[in-house]
């Protein structure tokens, strides 16, 4: 156990040295590569302004998304009215979508319980 601890400490020391020698260069390279995303001047006030712009831009996009939702719902209603003309491919896609929704629901329940499986007898 002591040898594992010494190995871990040695690797941590090597990683720390690597970051201290190459970290600054990586940081500068990253900033230079993404320079077009940086707002001038880079201050807290500018960050506050950008966060407000993001919030209100998203709020302004709600009516468009609302209309798109109702168009999709109308399309589903149309498909349901004419379900006799439904193709096998469309039914398969709908079934896969329903299965995916159910799988995400189950995964969310498992994550919500702290990754424990309860109520299942194996």
TrEMBL record:
The keyword Transport applies. The keyword Phosphoprotein does not apply. One of its GO terms (biological process) is proton motive force-driven ATP synthesis. InterPro entries: ATP_synth_F0_gsu_mt. Its main location: mitochondrion. One of its GO terms (cellular component) is proton-transporting ATP synthase complex. It is found in: Mitochondrion membrane. It comes from the Eukaryota. One of its GO terms (molecular function) is proton transmembrane transporter activity. Keywords: ATP synthesis, CF(0), Hydrogen ion transport, Ion transport, Membrane, Mitochondrion, Transport. Belongs to the ATPase g subunit family. This is Mitochondrial ATP synthase subunit G protein.
